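User:
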Amino acid sequence: MQENKPIPYGRQHITEEDIAAVADVLRGPYLTQGPHIAQFETAFAHYVGSQYAIAVANGTAALHLCCLALGVAAGTRVITSPITFSASANCVRYCGGEVHFADIDPETALLDVNAVRALLEKHPKGYFSGIIPVDFAGYPVDMAAFRELADEYGLWLLEDSCHAPGASFTDAAGTVHRCGDSSLADLAIFSFHPVKHIAAGEGGMITTNDENLYNHLLRLRTHGITNKPGDFTELYPGEPERGGWYMQMQELGYNYRLTDFQAALGNSQLQRADEMLDQRQALAKRYDEAFAEANVTIIVPPAGVGHAYHLYVIQVADRKGLYDFLRSRNIMAQVHYIPVHLMPYYREQGWQPGDFPKAEQYYAQCLSLPLFPTLTRDEQDYVIASVNEFIGQ
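Assistant: Predicted structure:
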């Protein structure tokens, strides 16, 4: 193992087949709004087990459109986790809604359903409109528990599955639920950023089993425009005859479309998604075994939980010391995440240190180690040896 070769915490895996798929599109007649988008959507819906999938520009766009489709507006209050990328909360603010946080479960680093219940019980029914649970690091949220709670309080559920394509959990009845299958959530979203499981440069996907939400999202991602005759309304009295050119902008939408060559890359990557997931899980198992007796905290999911391992996170007392030590050895460990409620923007909304002590304690100790399908055994051994050397000092 060459110690001067940087090892990132995440990296895309691009094959010759991926390159050929993109090149074919570049040689063809469509760069955007072509046939590969629909092909990718159909294949992805099949992969996660949902009825519908809508490809969009990125995961943040997916979150934004979902909030619009779910009716988030001024006065709408939505609950999410403080341990997530800021987009999980920002999407509510984009629509003028209010973001409320609840603390995490330290055993999973996921939004704690009991903390959410406690927050709901402090307010009258109808005060909150929805919950955005996050499958953080690839650990699937128990959406059955959240669905039961949401139904009790009349809330919608938007599952942020950006870290978790291929992840699954088994409910109390023995039914296996795949992240994004929309069997429990109203909508789910995914990201195709380069460090994610499926890389498309950028890109995102929304999945749902609700046909009305699906059709609404199709309009929202394209300026609020429809060219489907069955959707048309009367534009004005004496309107000229409608031809094949005709379309209507029926609401304020956005240009959140995915390009055809990005869709081709995503679809090519999707063909080996299970193989790459297996590689991530095998690498995580090696980390688990290496750190089982070490002076670090790791999260090992129980039986019935299929962790997707976008990230492999350890928790250590001297996180800054370990971070610096690994960086000095060209191991590019990273921190995921600074709690969203502590960001200056959300501090201005009234949140402050101490509001969510479990999330803040997690942040003080968390460090994501390199984990990606092409991480070699020698590289991983070097990471393990370096961590053990530091904590053994």
